[in-house]
Design brief:
Layout: E1 8-10, E2 13-15, E3 19-21, H1 36-47, E4 52-59, E5 71-72, H2 79-91, E6 95-101, E7 115-116, E8 130-131, H3 134-154, E9 158-163, H4 168-173, H5 188-191, H6 193-205, E10 209-215, H7 226-236, E11 243-247, H8 266-276, E12 280-283, H9 289-297, E13 303-305, H10 308-312, H11 316-323
């Protein structure tokens, strides 16, 4: 029996299989509002059989968007279009999740100012951010809290806090971008402090599951590795983390090529799982159902995330279940296409 297509519980969520759609920016929003494209895009992946669908990075403030065309959850007016996405995912039989993000120093949206833990630009093509003061930190925590409340009202059942890829929370975690000397810089505990405060604030208004996405390795000398990230997660995990989505890189410009191959981040997820004792999602250019099955069957991760392959074919999970001879029901409308 396929382990990949066994159901799984995260917090109080029941998910029909171990296959997740990771957040992937579509750059198709207007003033933070989702379009019909988003509803169709995510709805098709739900029909295709993914157990969990995490909607793309959604800004908690205008300067929290990565671009002008990214989704937002910083106004009540955003709830209606986000609800259409959540409803489409649910109607397809999947669990709707959403990634909340603040872009920090990697914001390229048309806003007057951008913010970061330290006044260090990502590279020469980015603006120099303003170093956040205590008031700015609290404003950001409050923004995540308000966005989480809106996400819940829109019908999402899991929130992923974006702590990866060099965006605001990620830039607090990494010593490459965080040069602070106050309680938000220096030690592992201090660098993780704002992330823990965000999670705690979100839990006050959102009753679903909480996922934290991290870059487990910076791939730059002097940056984080899995032991650093695992230590920081351990300092805040009791604030309400249900599962960790393990990615890597994009925190600072790399000076040499990152070794990339199918499943290149799975080992990082294994290490985070071992250090923290928390469930993890693993991925990284996964395309083979057999490889995904191996990862789950050998308990290297608790879920796998599949991105590009689902962009190529939103119905990939249905075909994967066929290949693995899993007893996963197909949508009745598509049953005639099921191979015996």
């Amino acid at each position: 029996m396929s382990k990949l297509f066994n159901n799984y519980t995260i917090g109080k969520l029941e998910i029909k299989n171990r296959l997740a759609v990771p957040p992937m920016c579509m750059y198709s929003a207007k003033d933070g509002h989702a379009s019909d494209f988003h509803t169709i895009h995510y709805g098709s992946m739900a029909i295709g059989g993914a157990g969990l669908i995490i909607v793309e990075a959604t800004g908690v403030s205008p300067c929290g968007r990565i671009t002008d065309n990214c989704l937002g959850a910083y106004e009540d007016s955003h709830i209606e279009s986000l609800k259409r996405i959540a409803d489409a995912i649910k109607s397809g039989g999947s669990v709707p999740a959403i990634q909340l993000n603040h872009a920090g120093r990697k914001c390229t949206a048309d806003v007057p100012e951008i913010y970061a833990p330290s006044a260090i630009a990502f590279d020469s093509s980015y603006r120099v951010p303003i170093e956040m003061n205590q008031k700015g930190i609290q404003t950001t925590i409050d923004a995540f809290k308000s966005a989480a409340k809106r996400a819940g009202e829109a019908g999402f059942e899991m929130i992923e806090i974006h702590g990866a890829h060099g965006y605001l929370l990620s830039s607090y975690l990494s010593p490459l971008s965080n040069k602070r000397t106050d309680e938000y810089g220096g030690s592992h505990e201090n660098r993780a402090r704002i992330v823990g405060q965000v999670i705690k604030a979100v839990k006050e208004v959102f009753k679903g599951a909480i996922c934290l996405r991290v870059s487990a390795k910076d791939f730059v000398d002097g940056g984080n590795n899995t032991s650093d990230v695992g230590t920081m997660i351990n300092s805040i995990k009791n604030n309400g983390i249900d599962i960790v989505n393990v990615s890597s890189g994009a925190v600072a410009p790399v000076t040499s090529a990152i070794p990339i191959y199918p499943g290149y981040q799975v080992k990082l997820a294994e290490e985070i799982k071992s250090i923290t004792g928390l469930p993890v999602m693993a991925g990284g250019l996964l395309t083979s159902p057999l490889q995904m099955e191996e990862i789950i069957a050998n308990e290297r991760a608790d879920m796998v995330y599949v991105g590009r392959e689902l962009l190529r074919n939103p119905h990939f999970p249905l075909l994967a279940s066929n290949e693995l001879k899993a007893k996963m029901p197909w949508p009745v409308q598509y049953e005639r296409a099921k191979k015996s």
